[in-house]
Amino acid sequence: MSIGTLLSMPCAEGLFRRAIAQSGAAHHVISADDGHRIGEYLAEKLGVPPTREAIAAVLVERLLTGQTELKADLLAHPYPGRWGQEVVASMMLWQPVIDGEVIPGPPIERITAGASAQVDLILGTNTEDWRLFRVISGGSTRSPMRS
Question: What is the C-alpha separation between 37 and 102, in angstroms, rounded?
Fold first, then answer.
């Protein structure tokens, strides 16, 4: 997903000659409104103002706890009106945000339109790598490495 996003970004143009997009596509992005709303929810969990500076000043341990609490809230209450349709569909809170500048539009659409057409690209996937997300989200307690 990260490679797809990078390949779509105007500010990354010319930085890559070759890339490997392994397991994940350039589909996952959220709107600026949804990104701001999620940032506000995180700030609320952290007990700080919803500003970049305030969130950046939070100790890492507390930030990780706040993120875990927010993810639990999403899993318990997956309402598109609260989180945004893209977040509920993917159950991923932390996605690139279409800001109109760094990420001017959905990466998959920009790549389809020719962004990074000069980059040699290898695409791949991993069998059942999605299982890792189930462990991270608490949907499974089994290790993704064990059958």
Answer: 19
First to last CA, the chain: 25
Kindly state the percentage of the chain with pLDDT values over 90: 74
> Six-digit token pair at 69?
């609490």
The conformation of residue 19, written as its DSSP 8-state character, comes to: E
Q: How confident is the model at residue 32 (pLDDT cuts 50, 70, 90)?
A: very high
Please indicate whether residue 124 or residue 69 has the higher confidence score (pLDDT).
69
Q: Are 74 and 87 in contact (CB under 8 A)?
A: yes
**CA 116 to CA 137: how far, in whole Å?**
33
The pair of structure tokens assigned to 45 is 């969990």
Residues 60 and 93: their CA atoms lie apart, in Å, by 18
Residue 39 has pLDDT above 60, yes or no: yes
Q: What pLDDT does 142 receive?
A: 58
Burial (CB count <10 Å: 0-12, 13-18, 19+), residue 91:
middle
Evaluate whether 1 touches 24 at the Cβ level (below 8 Å). Answer: yes
